[in-house]
Amino acid sequence: xxxxxxxKKAWKSGEHSYSQVSEQDIYGMLHRKSSSIxxxxxxxxxxxxxxxxxxxxGFSDEQYQxxxxxxxxxxxxxxxxxxxxxxxxxFIYVFYKNYRSICILDSTKTLMKSIxxxxxxxxxxxxxxxxxxxxxxxxxxxxxxxxxADVAMLMQKExxxxxxxxxxxxxxxxxxxxxxxxxxxxxxxxxxxxxILLKKLYANYHELKKxxx
Length: 213
Hints:
Blueprint: H1 3-13, H2 16-59, H3 62-71, H4 74-103, H5 108-147, H6 149-160, H7 164-212
């Protein structure tokens, strides 16, 4: 049986004086578990940042840069990447602050507020990542249609055949489906990566709420 469950049973079934001690023990257990979860959120966010940067550096060879230059999006992608790095470092700093603050908390109410704040930060972080991924894919698709020679040739062929509207509608639908698939894949990735930790953290919040009541 989980140590927390043992303390909860002792707290509910014991005498009043023992109940007070057990309540403090339960708070201490939830405090340690919550700080551990927030620490893992921080660690995972740092590892994720390093992982995507390694992937980015691995693909950013001369051929890739020439393709960006040919598509006319080298400056745009540089700006997007700079802003993205700055925002991600900011999120990591906030995760670190959440971890540091949760380690020194001394009341149930403060810990509950910290848990909710951390949960909201992680959710915002996930939404931001999905947004930046969507933006990058949309920019890449638009530039491909404007600058890719094969796509331009196919488009001209369809226009000559009188299928311009059908071709455009088809491209929009295919692009939207592709973007939707990308978003779903990354949403599932983040759901698996952070969802389990957030679920445990929120469970701690509910346990603390019972103590507070």
